Amino acid sequence: MITAIFDLDGTIADTIQDLADAVNHGLKQLGCPEHSVESYKQMVGNGARKLCIRALPESRKSEAEKLHGLFRAYYGMHYLDNTKLYPDIKETLEKLTESGVKIAVATNKPQDVARQVVKSLLPETEFYKVLGGCDERPKKPDSAIIREILGELPKDNKVFMIGDSNVDIQTAKNSGLISIGCIWGFRSREELEAEGADFIAEESRDITDIILR
Description:
Elements: E1 2-6, E2 13-14, H1 16-30, H2 37-40, H3 48-55, H4 64-78, E3 84-85, H5 89-98, E4 102-110, H6 111-121, E5 129-133, H7 144-150, E6 158-163, H8 166-175, E7 178-182, H9 189-195, E8 199-201, H10 205-212
Parallel strand pairs: 1-4, 1-6, 4-5, 6-7, 7-8
Antiparallel strand pairs: 2-3
Helix pairs in contact: 1-4, 3-4, 5-10
């Protein structure tokens, strides 16, 4: 049996513009400096609260919860304004499922929004589970989310973790999974290689070649 667990932001979908807009909206309400979309690529990956902490000036870190509330309210209404699938990712997921691979999502994005994004962008794709950030379990790179996904699956299961950042590669290592780093996302090939990714995918179709070969 083979299972492929995908990160969401920067791996399945390009979400960075909507994330940046939502945080910048909150920063503007608080009278704080805003950031470029490009700079947010280095801030995301560890969940919405961590993103808000990183976006605030050093002297305003105590307002992280306030910013997080503003972010969630705005993002909940605008999470699909600019968000789109990466090229060929839909076809990659379809090929995997047609080949008998179970596919799942493990993301630090708030779980309710993650499920809405997946359902909106991939309404016909059958995911075994879509799990995101919540108060009931620690976030990636902790292995808790992976254990929850794999808990009811057979033990003789070859499992891949596919993601675009060091967080995903660390998650794979902490969970004993095979890691595939995706260079089309928010982070660089250098970061993924330095973190020790088992494989590097330059385009989404490389994922099927790695998993099915």
